[in-house]
Specification:
Distance between the termini: 30 Å
Number of helices: 2
Number of strands: 5
Radius of gyration: 13 Å
Shape: globular
Helix content: 25-40%
C-alpha cells in the first residue's frame, strides 16, 4: 500500500450550493462509507489498510489515501471528472495550473 495526497481547486469559500454538490459526489464515489466526526471516508478509516479521507484546507479540497497506486489514480480521476461535470468548472490540482 502506498500513501497518496491530492489538493483540488475546490475552495473553502465556494457557496453552500457548490459544497452540497460536492457532498453528493462523495456519496456516489466507490467505497463511500460516510462521515466520521465530519470527515468523509471511503473504503475504511485510518486504522485500516485501505482508506481515503477528505478535508477542506486553505489549499483546497484535500484528499489523503492509503491504497495501491492504480486504484488511487482511477478513483481520483473519476472524482475530478464527476466534480468537473457537476460544478461547472475544470477540477484539478492547483500545482497543475487549475485555479
Amino acid at each position: 500500500m502506498n500513501a497518496h495526497h491530492c489538493n483540488l481547486n475546490i475552495w473553502a469559500h465556494l457557496p453552500d450550493e457548490a459544497w452540497n454538490k460536492v457532498a453528493n459526489i462523495y456519496e456516489l464515489m466507490p467505497g463511500w462509507i460516510g462521515y466520521t466526526d465530519g470527515i468523509p471516508h471511503w473504503f475504511g478509516q485510518e486504522e485500516d489498510d485501505v482508506y481515503i479521507q477528505a478535508s477542506v484546507e486553505p489549499s483546497g479540497l484535500s484528499f489523503y489515501a492509503q491504497m495501491n497506486k492504480s486504484d488511487w489514480d482511477s478513483w481520483i480521476a473519476r472524482f475530478k471528472a464527476e466534480a468537473t461535470k457537476v460544478l461547472g468548472f475544470d477540477v484539478g490540482e492547483p500545482e497543475d495550473g487549475f485555479m
